[in-house]
Amino acid sequence: MIQSERVKVLRGGTPAAGRYVLYWMQASQRTVYNHALEFAVERANELGLPLVVFFGITARYPGANRRHYLFMLEGLREVGEALSERGAQFVVRKVSPEKGALQLAGEASLVVVDRGYLCGQREWREWLVRRSPCPVFQVESDVVVPVETASRKEEYSAATLRPRIKRLLPAFLVPLSERRLKRRNPQFELEGVDLSDPASLAEEVRATPAPEPVLIPPGGTSEARARLRSFIREKLDLYHLLSNHPELDYTSGLSPYLHFGQISPLEVALEVGKVKGPGAAAFLEQLIVRRELSVNFVFYNPTYDSLSALPAWARQTMEEHARDRREYLYEFEELERARTHDPFWNAAQREMLATGRMHNYMRMYWGKKILEWTPTPQEALRVMIRLNDKYELDGRDPNGYAGILWCLGKHDRPFAEREVTGKVRWMSQRGLLRKFDMESYLKRVDSYFGEKTPSRGASPSANP
């Protein structure tokens, strides 16, 4: 069942006399539990037409580099194989996605698009709609509850969004069946790039150089599903007790796959929901309420990557403490290379450099310390976004922007006032040592490199 709330007519009208139905796949990079794909199959069957699925690869995506392209292309190779089995043609082109979609829309009867929430993603779709010669439908498939159905405004915190989401879950937490495509295998071939060698293609399209990662996981729906099964089997029961422990890493590891749309949050929620207990409940809180709070934030607040998105109390307290003396100040390159006085922060940064991800709890600590070690809150935000988007596989994501702004007070409350950070929640080395086995965490990160995490590789910049 595809709920009507997931479908939005972006450009109305009668279907054109086209050769095919076009699905422009961009956010939902999968063939299972993809409402946009199933909607496109339904429309193709109604019109008696074959289905063409298009994906555009741009080398200009902000912050993207080889690690992101390789992960994505490995997933797209699997998408192409699955679509071929279903009888649809998959066309991937090295072109700005909205322009590639418009090229193919010229011979389409109608166009189906999936939904993105960041400003750039929304601008792509708006550009196409203004120029499309045929109707355009948008189908939302990367949240459990559609964003505008969950709330018509930006929510203050998880506490205000949670009851809205929970009331709606029975209507949306339902399986999605695969539709059979009646007109299989179009009798024409549209030109596209070869996906058989993702590594070589990633080299061709990468825009921003980055240090070679050590342990980047393979991309694709099959890998995401395998990780989900492993997580449910081995970690879910104790998730509520151990997920915050960086030395144990009891997280699911699914965030990159969710970011690229290689696995559906609906599928994940349904599988986890089969397990009863506090572990499953805690995980579903993160997957649905917290993740969709991030989507709500970037959708309703176009300043999601600036300090103006913070609550008034956070902006005020940072302004009041902007001139406080910082005990340490680091240049961007020192932070990027994990050359600070703090071995735990260095380990978190090195974990991100090596694996494309950082443990959730350490990511909070990481951001809090950047606020302390940079000259201004504006610079702290700039550094966090730049490092996160360059190295995290799930960078350039609603969760990333919401998480970074949380380090500065978003979706949080005021705490006891301190120097530098003001009333923004503070985190300390002492807290890490009290709660976790940090030596084990350091050893785990060291194992990625075969060397010890440095406690200081460079002296912090002088603080005037």
Total DSSP E strands: 6
The domain tally reads 3
Shape: globular
The CATH architecture assignment of the largest domain turns out to be Orthogonal Bundle
Ranges where pLDDT stays below 50 over 5 or more residues in a row are 456-464
How does the major sheet shape up?
Answer: 6 strands, mixed
Any idea what the CATH superfamily of the largest domain is called?
DNA Cyclobutane Dipyrimidine Photolyase, subunit A, domain 3
Order of helices and strands: EEHEHEHEHEHHHHHHHHHHHHHHHH
Mean pLDDT: 94
Beta percentage is 5-15%
The Cα radius of gyration reads 23 Å
Pairing-aware structural class of the strands and helices? alpha/beta
Measure the end-to-end span. 63 Å
CATH topology of the largest domain: DNA Cyclobutane Dipyrimidine Photolyase, subunit A, domain 3
Note the total helix count: 20
Describe this entry's structure for a reader:
- The chain is α/β, with parallel strands linked by helices and 464 residues long.
- The protein folds into three domains: 1-142, HUPs (Rossmann fold, 3-Layer(aba) Sandwich), CATH 3.40.50.620; 143-175 and 220-300, Serine Threonine Protein Phosphatase 5, Tetratricopeptide repeat; 307-449, DNA Cyclobutane Dipyrimidine Photolyase, subunit A, domain 3 (Orthogonal Bundle), CATH 1.10.579.10.
- Helix content is 48%, strand content 7%.
- The protein has 20 helices and six strands.
- The chain has helices at residues 35-47, 66-86, 97-105, 119-131, 147-150, 158-172, 198-205, 221-234, 239-242, 255-259, 265-273, 278-300, 312-320, 332-336, 343-355, 360-373, 377-391, 398-406, 429-435, 438-449; strands spanning 7-11, 20-24, 51-56, 89-93, 108-114, 136-139.
- It has a six-stranded mixed sheet.
- Strand 2, helix 1 and strand 3 form a beta-alpha-beta unit.
- Helix 2 (66-86) crosses helix 7, helix 6 crosses helix 12 and helix 17 (377-391) packs antiparallel against helix 18.
- It is globular, with a radius of gyration of 23 Å.
- Residues 456-464 have low confidence and may be disordered.
